[in-house]
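User: Structure please.
Assistant: Input sequence and predicted structure:
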Amino acid sequence: MRCVALSVIICLATYEMILISSQLFLSPQLVENGLIYLRHNVFGDSDLDILFAKVQEECRLSPQPHLDDNNRIKYYLGLWAHGAPSANVDTAICPDKGSLPPVDRAFCFNPQAMQAHAIKLGVSSLFGQTKNGFSAYLYTQEMVALLSKVAGGCCDGQPLPVQFGDGPSQSNLPVLIKVAKAERGLNSSNVLSHHVGVILPLAAWRHWIVIAHVAAIDQTPFEAKKDVAIWRGATTGPRHDYERRSWERVHQRPALVRRSPQWSNNAHIDIGVTKYVHNVLDRWGTVPSLSMRQMLDYKMLIVAEGNDVATSLKWMLMATSAVIMPRPTKASWLMEDMLVPWQHYIPVAQDFHDLPNKVDWCLKHLEACKTIGHNGHCFMQPFLDRDSESRIKAAVVKRVAAIAKAMNICRC
């Protein structure tokens, strides 16, 4: 047993060294989160259990409205919570014939075949031989690990319809996806979402794995935090929204970046672009990135959707600072459209034109602003319950497997 454990540690350490050396052409944040994810799966979740108990106690006197496990399962299944059609459909997703899984399109994920190519994925990503190679590697390892934990294994090796990457599924089939359109709210009497894809917490190394570390570093009392609303990020989102003159239907992140010069003299708003991507021209300058620890020194954390959901929203809600953001347009495992304005976050317009007013409100109503930060913190409580999360994920995957088999989706 000791030899096996030592081998695992040596292999992990070796792979980490390779990944660290690859930062010349991979996103440092992606590499860092990937390493956290790998350690998390090898050495366990004791830190998450401790955090769950801590948050339970903190939120005991201010309970938040949450869906129970059964209703969360319905939420993630969306339209497929009703079951599958009685007959086969005319459309099928053929199992991917290549050795590398695609990103941003639906395919049939074969656990055994994909795991066999895991090493090739990692190596090809290091040498730049495949687009999104490192992401594909992590998606693959994550999916294989998830399926292995579903009641000791799932689906007898049956391929499952999956879509890795950003964006809602364009398929009309029950595809396992990371993100769907946000179409409902907490006060709706209908628990079901109307999205076609089935939501699963994919890309956990980017979106979820870091939240267990927030409590350990968010030690500054709200009152002592800086009286500033902070945002740092890259120019993700539609490129044309950064270039157009109109403000109509502009996506959140381009709108925030484009408006930032208006607030350059506002001592309470700090907006900075750290990296230009998607061929967006450098028109707003760049500022150094800030670590999570540095961001937590601010009373207000600004969230703006980019390619899909805002990656930072999970850990920002986990913090005790107050989140300022427009109403979410995308929903993921977090159930973003269950967040209530003025209860879990301070709402702003989709184009951020009223951001200064909302920042002023927070500074004039510090106790209310602090309460909103606390409520957002407590909203995260159910997602820290490992047992509940495991049951929900298992139920969602098994339901999709049953529906896919009944519909004969992967019959090619």
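The radius of gyration is 21 Å.
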